[in-house]
Amino acid sequence: xxxxxxxxxxxxxxxxxxxxxxxxxxxxxxxxxxxxxxxxxxxxxxxxxxxxxxxxxxxxxxxxxxxxxxxxxxxxxxxxxxxxxxxxxxxxxxxxxxxxxxxxxxxxxxxxxxxxxxxxxxxxxxxxxxxxxxxxxxxxxxxxxxxxxxxxxxxxxxxxxxxxxxxxxxxxxxx
Length: 175
Hints:
Layout: E1 2-6, E2 10-15, E3 27-34, E4 43-51, E5 59-68, E6 73-82, E7 89-90, E8 99-103, H1 105-115, E9 125-134, H2 141-159, H3 164-173
């Protein structure tokens, strides 16, 4: 687990996985673009973010997996919807208020936009969001967009053997 805190910007934590945030979406948004690098190994990560500004602390949790594929495209997939049933809330690492499992449909496009930013070159394969936690009071499309960009930075760094903490710090600093 890596925790990055940047005063007056926010805090983010990343880990390999958080199975209790797994959900099966009821819908999906996706986009693709030409892959630009050689094939890579599968990678998984989860990121929880908490933005600090003006007394408001929006937060979000996203996790996903990159799976290489024998193609010339990189596909970005964001499932949305909530898993219902017992124990479908959990405590994140950054706040004492529980998160609900799943990604609301109204945050899906912003999440996809953050995930597929042009800042990163990707090997051929699919990057899929399959972990999510929403704060029923403090989440927004904007914070999910930032969480998705942070997740993309972490997985991209792992795929290319770069410093994950530095990549995450660069993203949080940009807030």
